Amino acid sequence: MPEQLTSPARFELEDQDIEIGKSTREARVRWAMVIDHDLAPGVAANAASCMAAAVGERVPGIVGPGGVDASGTNHPGLPWTGCTVLGADAATVHRVRSASLARDGVLVVDMPKKAAQARAYAAYLDVLAESEPADIDYLGVSLVGPRTTIGKLVGRLPLLR
């Protein structure tokens, strides 16, 4: 009888996970990005911001409530988890992404190089549909999930500099 393949459990943010009063080091949920450290600063910033937008859309509740300063000016909410941006070589980015896909409860958002090169989103989707997974180069990967799981995936990678 053939072995049945199963997919890892999807990431779902639960109400009890939202802990805006705790230190980001104490929260049960962690958000980390691993960006190719050889990218030009503008390309790295673009990759991080695109992945952050995708995470924000995919994970309702990850952005905390806005606040008002002493002058009455409103400041929109920010991610209560924080987001650690780490740097690694392209092979490590690819390896972290691959390992993350097999973990339960981890949201994986990636930024393929082909997405940054496309001038129209539909063109990117067309190119992506024709690409074999092993042939896709990544500018970065963004991971959200249980603190200990994310920690094991990103290990001791340094901050992006």
Key features?
Bit1; two-stranded antiparallel ribbon; globular; 6 strands; 161 residues
Task: Walk me through what this model shows.
Helix content is 32%, strand content 20%. With 161 residues, it is of the alpha+beta class. It has one domain: 3-Layer(aba) Sandwich (Bit1), CATH 3.40.1490. The strands form two sheets. Strands 4-1-6-5 form a four-stranded mixed beta sheet, sandwiched between helices. Strand 2 and strand 3 form a beta hairpin.
Integer average pLDDT: 93
User: Tell me about the biggest sheet?
Assistant: 4 strands, mixed
**CATH-level-4 superfamily name:** Bit1
Order of helices and strands: EHEEEHEHHEH
Q: How much of the sequence is in beta strands?
A: 15-25%
CATH architecture: 3-Layer(aba) Sandwich
Distance between the termini: 51 Å
CATH class category = Alpha Beta
Q: How many domains, as an integer?
A: 1
CATH fold name, please? Bit1
C-alpha Rg (nearest Å): 17 Å
Number of helices: 5
DSSP strand tally:
6
Helix content: 25-40%
Q: Structural class per helix/strand content?
A: alpha+beta
Short description:
The protein has 161 residues and is an alpha+beta fold. Helix content is 32%, strand content 20%.
Topology:
Layout: E1 29-36, H1 41-58, E2 67-68, E3 74-75, E4 84-88, H2 90-101, E5 107-112, H3 113-117, H4 121-129, E6 138-146, H5 147-154
Parallel strand pairs: 1-4
Antiparallel strand pairs: 1-6, 2-3, 5-6
Pfam families: DUF2000
Protein name: DUF2000 domain-containing protein
InterPro entries: DUF2000, Pep_tRNA_hydro_II_dom_sf
